């Protein structure tokens, strides 16, 4: 059985960042979240400017990952029922509720999914921690990885379960090693490819990390048809040194903030981690600073949630994301580059893109292409 592994560099970059300690940022003028001042990623994607038109209410993002801390005070208000598909042994799938602790009840180094979830939809203006890109969207925790790894088959089942239970967006901050695209290109592995096609046919967007090994093309499953591949930028809007280039045959590719992965904590992405697991030198008890395309991806998934909450179809959400993404430096839209894809996702511009259905929630208005 082929194995797929979460991007290991997302963890190793945390270790590098811990060389320089940091303190809490000042609260941003627009929120009461004390770490908002460190969330330069929200500023880069113009998230707060989009909240006048949408905060994500009614949209659901499935975080298909290592599971989520269901007790985290900055997340639990936005959590909906999830599921666990890894570590089930002889039990039928699903065998859990998407908690980051697997069926064995242990945390096996699976903080990653909680960090991703906070970037998507941490509760805003609650005087606690951080704010998500789509702070009123729902988070559906889908645990398909344990100790940073899992199978194509479990990931595929997790995607399908999420779609069947109402997910508007699938966030996958995971991927195979460079070169594993050959498995899907040759047809040796089809389960995740088919699951992405199933999601798209049901009107669900699939947003996937490009990868962290600095190769010229998106890793799988970001490589697969219908997936939106997300590369990483640093706080200066330059391509992060570790990021894959967002190139794939269907050109569904953008960039978003993922951090620098060097020595400064504040140059990386601050978000939620399971309660009590924040690093002593870089984070706080319940928050930490990570870097990787794993962090870039939920910025885009959050933007997609803002758009779905406006009653848009999948086709229109994708058009809004790709057509309004801006190339760094020039600010040009509608221009593709091999370094940034269609550019850095822009929540405010996407929210103004034609196609929003005023007064209509996403639920009940779902369409495929």
Description:
There is one protein chain. The protein is of the alpha/beta class and about 375 residues long. Helix 4 (about 110-120) runs parallel beside helix 8 (about 295-310), helix 5 packs parallel to helix 7 (about 190-200) and helix 8 (about 295-310) crosses helix 9. The chain has ten helices and eleven strands. The model is unreliable at about 1-30 and about 360-369 (pLDDT under 50). The two termini are about 35 Å apart.
Helix content: 10-25%
Strand content: 5-15%
Strand order of the largest sheet: 3-4-2-6-7-8-9
Query: How would you describe the shape?
Result: globular
Based on helices, strands and strand pairing, what is the structural class?
alpha/beta
Rg calculated over all Cα atoms? 18 Å
Q: Please provide the count of β strands.
A: 11
Q: Could you tell me how far the N terminus lies from the C terminus, measured between alpha carbons in angstroms?
A: 33 Å
Low-confidence stretches: 1-28, 359-369
Query: Could you give a short account of the major beta sheet?
Result: 7 strands, parallel
Indicate the topology:
Layout: E1 3-5, H1 9-17, H2 40-44, H3 47-50, E2 60-65, E3 83-84, H4 112-121, E4 138-143, E5 149-151, H5 152-164, E6 169-172, H6 181-185, H7 191-201, E7 205-209, E8 227-233, E9 253-257, E10 269-272, E11 287-290, H8 293-308, H9 314-324, H10 347-351
Parallel strand pairs: 2-4, 2-6, 3-4, 6-7, 7-8, 8-9
Antiparallel strand pairs: 1-5, 10-11
């Amino acid at each position: 059985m082929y194995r797929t592994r979460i991007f290991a560099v997302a963890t190793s970059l945390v270790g590098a960042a811990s060389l320089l300690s940091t303190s809490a940022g000042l609260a941003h003028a627009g929120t009461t979240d004390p770490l908002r001042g460190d969330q330069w990623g929200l500023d880069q994607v113009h998230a707060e400017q989009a909240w006048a038109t949408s905060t994500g209410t009614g949209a659901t993002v499935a975080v298909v990952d290592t599971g989520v801390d269901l007790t985290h005070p900055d997340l639990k208000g936005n959590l909906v029922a999830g599921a666990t598909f890894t570590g089930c042994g002889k039990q039928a799938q699903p065998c859990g509720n998407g908690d980051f602790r697997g069926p064995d009840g242990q945390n096996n180094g699976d903080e990653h999914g909680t960090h991703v979830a906070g970037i998507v939809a941490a509760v805003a203006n609650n005087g606690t921690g951080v704010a998500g890109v789509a702070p009123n969207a729902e988070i559906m925790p889908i645990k398909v990885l344990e100790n940073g790894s899992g199978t194509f088959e479990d990931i595929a089942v997790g995607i399908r379960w999420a779609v069947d239970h109402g997910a508007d967006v699938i966030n996958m901050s995971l991927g195979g090693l460079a070169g594993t695209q050959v498995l899907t290109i040759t047809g040796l592995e089809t389960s995740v490819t088919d699951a992405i096609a199933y999601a798209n046919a049901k009107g669900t967007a699939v947003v996937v990390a490009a990868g962290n090994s600095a190769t010229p093309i998106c890793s799988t499953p970001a490589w697969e048809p219908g997936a939106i591949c997300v590369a990483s930028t640093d706080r200066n809007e330059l391509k992060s040194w570790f990021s894959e280039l967002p190139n794939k045959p269907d050109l569904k590719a953008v960039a978003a903030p993922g951090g620098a992965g060097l020595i400064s904590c504040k140059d990386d992405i601050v978000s939620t981690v399971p309660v009590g697991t924040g690093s002593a030198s870089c984070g706080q008890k319940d928050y930490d600073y990570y870097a990787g395309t794993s962090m870039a991806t939920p910025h885009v998934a959050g933007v997609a949630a803002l758009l779905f909450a406006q009653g848009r179809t999948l086709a229109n959400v994708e058009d809004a994301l790709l057509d309004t993404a801006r190339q760094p430096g020039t600010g040009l839209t509608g221009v593709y580059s091999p370094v940034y894809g269609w550019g850095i996702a822009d929540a405010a511009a996407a929210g103004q893109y034609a196609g929003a259905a005023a007064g209509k929630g996403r639920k009940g208005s779902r369409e495929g292409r």
